[in-house]
Specification:
Layout (H helix, E strand, L loop, with lengths): L3 H7 L6 E4 L1 H18 L2 E5 L6 H8 L4 E4 L2 H9 L7 E3 L6 H10 L3 E4 L2 H13 L4 E6 L28 H10 L3 E7 L9 H19 L7 E3 L19 H11 L7 E6 L1 H4 L3 E12 L4 E5 L8 H5 L5 E3 L6 E7 L8 E9 L6 E4 L20 E4 L4
Parallel strand pairs: 1-16, 2-3, 2-9, 3-4, 4-5, 5-6, 6-7, 7-8, 8-9, 11-13
Antiparallel strand pairs: 1-10, 10-11, 10-15, 12-15, 13-14
Helix pairs in contact: 2-9, 4-5, 5-6, 8-9
Keywords: Amino-acid biosynthesis, Decarboxylase, Lyase, Lysine biosynthesis, Pyridoxal phosphate
EC number: 4.1.1.20
Pfam families: Orn_Arg_deC_N (PF02784)
């Protein structure tokens, strides 16, 4: 991915920075659009993965909608060209102000996660003389078999409405005159690479739909969320996830009526592989049993390894020397500021360029100014 010409272009750019391969992003979007269009599926880009305006504007040109989890994400989506009638709004803790932002914009749908939330949206909709379209976010109790921090579809999670609450939800909806139920929403977790998990989700949705049909409730929209994973270990061998098989699972196993439309909220699988965090080596320090490669990027630029020990492939893109083993760490005053232990790299020295791969999702989006550090710039392949 990084040839000598590209590395030469990096030499005048202050590090650390996020580098985006826009050709790869376009190729990914082309495949998503082709496969989703085959079945008439609707795609909403999950803004939380990466809210960079240039990234969002490109995705919008493919006709996709936006999946937002805050009022500011709704505002950013509108600013970057997404139409309100393709914006869905999820989140377990929507504030009054955020709900009013969404109502004023006239978004397509609120994905509601609790009875108190439905009651509040109804109250605010009544105050503003509006009707809010909602989908019930249902906790299907399907284990995504992923990291416990990013599993969202089992009963002990804070997300969604459990099956034992259904009757109470229907009673609430009956009393909520400014609410229109248009859909059922599901999202079971993130970074799911076992497609059988999505088959299990389809079968569970079929069961849940039967419960609603028995009560003469048929919604027009089913939203299965996102969660499709990417290959962090082999980003060059598998730069684009297998969307053919992914969409095919839902076509094969999900029972929809002719009037129902299927929606997806894809984030990581869209943008993760197109982004890398580019850093320079500040120092190579000899420890008692290991060498430390100390970078000018840290957990403030890529939080995932510190947050839940996530793996990112680490490459020295400057050196062709003999392999040595390093602990690759950042400059932040926290012991958790470590990108990888016992990482095999070509012989590494000060000012070498290090690429932390598959950082297009939840890299820039989770950046912070801890230690009063500057927010890193973004660099785009089509602008070099």
């Amino acid at each position: 991915m990084f040839n000598s010409t590209r590395i030469d272009q990096f030499k005048n750019i202050p590090t650390p920075f996020y580098y985006y391969n826009m050709e790869l992003l376009e190729n990914t979007l082309d495949l998503i659009k082709t496969e989703a269009s085959r079945y008439g599926y609707h795609i909403h880009y999950a803004v939380k993965a990466n809210a960079n305006p240039k990234i969002m504007k490109l995705i919008q040109t493919y006709g996709f909608g936006a999946d937002c989890v805050s009022g500011n994400e709704i505002t950013r989506s509108l600013e970057t060209g997404y139409t309100a009638n393709k914006i869905v709004y999820a989140g377990v803790g929507k504030s009054d102000r955020e709900i009013l932002t969404a109502l004023e914009a006239g978004i397509f749908c609120f994905n509601c996660e609790s009875i108190p939330e439905i009651e509040l949206i109804n109250e605010l909709a009544e105050q503003t003389n509006k009707t809010a379209r909602i989908a019930i976010r249902i906790n299907p109790n399907v284990n995504a078999n992923t990291h416990h921090y990013i599993t969202t579809g089992i009963e002990e999670n804070k997300f969604g409405i459990n099956r034992w609450e259904f009757e109470s939800v229907l009673e609430t909806l009956e009393q909520s005159k400014n609410i229109e139920l248009i859909g059922l929403h599901f999202h079971i977790g993130s970074q799911i690479t076992d497609l059988s998990v999505f088959k299990g989700l389809c079968l569970r949705i079929n069961e849940i739909q039967e419960w609603f049909k028995e009560r003469q409730i048929l919604v027009n929209h089913i939203n299965v969320g996102g969660g499709f994973g990417v290959d962090y270990k082999h980003p060059d061998e598998n730069p684009i996830p297998d969307f053919v098989s992914f969409f095919g699972i839902f076509k094969e196993f999900l029972n929809l009526t002719p009037s129902q439309e299927l929606h997806f909220e894809l984030g990581r699988s869209v943008v993760a592989q197109c982004g890398s965090l580019i850093s320079k080596v500040l120092y190579v320090k000899n420890g008692v049993n290991t060498k430390f490669a100390i970078l000018d990027a840290g957990m403030t630029e890529l939080l995932r390894p510190a947050l839940y020990q996530a793996y990112h492939k680490i490459e020295n893109i400057s050196s062709n020397g003999e392999e040595e083993v390093y602990d690759v760490v950042g400059p932040i005053c926290e012991s958790s500021d470590c990108f990888g232990k016992a990482v095999s790299l070509p012989s590494t020295k000060r000012n070498d360029f290090i690429a932390l791969r598959t950082a297009g999702a939840y890299g820039e989006a989770m950046a912070s100014r801890y230690n009063l550090r500057d927010i890193a710039d973004s660099v785009f392949s089509n602008e070099l």
